[in-house]
Amino acid sequence: MSHCNTPKHKHAMMIAKYRPSGMMHPFNGLVSEILGHDIGQVLGHDSAERQLPAVNIIEQADAYLLQLVATGFSKGDLKLKIESETLTISGEREKFELKENERFTRREFNAGSFARSFRLPESVSVDGISAELLNGILQVRIPKSDAASPKGREISIG
């Protein structure tokens, strides 16, 4: 939970991105300093594969609206879960199979997975959270509430 102390938003709360401790790879900083690339590039991985889906978080009068780019994912590929006031959105995309007599001349997207976690403010209603996948954008509505909510719940995508 974060408080903004500017006069316009004296008591505004925001959903904060959750960053677990630890580095992606212990040698990433060293490799980056020496070679000017992170360890994934040195090992032949394209940086586009590691990017997390972009997110917008919009505060409305009665709710927060979280929008996550989920292009190429179906409802069945995505999962939303709340544990200990942390909302985790994850997705897994299966490998794209070629037909006989086909080959890639360029391959920029692949099978893979992601997980993004967000710390929820105390003033949201976990029971009222809903999600919908529209035109490649996952929209998660998180209503505000003063009542306490249960600690965990899975959310289905409508």
Q: Strands, helices and their partners?
A:
Layout: E1 2-3, E2 13-14, E3 16-17, H1 28-35, H2 39-42, E4 55-59, E5 63-69, E6 78-83, E7 86-93, E8 112-119, E9 130-134, E10 137-143, E11 152-155
Antiparallel strand pairs: 1-2, 3-8, 4-5, 5-10, 6-7, 6-11, 7-8, 9-10
Structure description:
With 158 residues, the protein is mostly beta strands. It has one domain: Immunoglobulin-like. The chain is built from 2 helices and 11 strands, in the order βββααββββββββ. A hairpin with a 2-residue loop joins strand 9 and strand 10. The longest helix is centred in the N-terminal third of the chain and has 8 residues, at 28-35. Mean pLDDT is 75; it is low at 1-11.
Quick synopsis:
This protein has 158 residues and is mostly beta strands. The chain has two helices and eleven strands, in the order E-E-E-H-H-E-E-E-E-E-E-E-E. It has helices at 28-35, 39-42, and strands spanning 2-3, 13-14, 16-17, 55-59, 63-69, 78-83, 86-93, 112-119, 130-134, 137-143, 152-155.
How many structural domains does the protein architecture include? 1
Tell me the span between the first and last alpha carbons.
Answer: 27 Å
Low-pLDDT stretches are 1-11
User: How many DSSP H or I helices?
Assistant: 2
- Rg over C-alpha atoms, rounded to the nearest angstrom: 19 Å
Instruction: List the secondary-structure elements in sequence, H or E.
Output: EEEHHEEEEEEEE
Residue share in helix: under 10%
Say how many strands there are.
11
> Based on helices, strands and strand pairing, what is the structural class?
mainly beta
Mean pLDDT across all amino acids: 75
CATH-derived topology: Immunoglobulin-like
CATH level 1 class label: Mainly Beta
How are the strands ordered across the major sheet?
3-8-7-6-11
Portion of residues in beta strands equals 35-45%
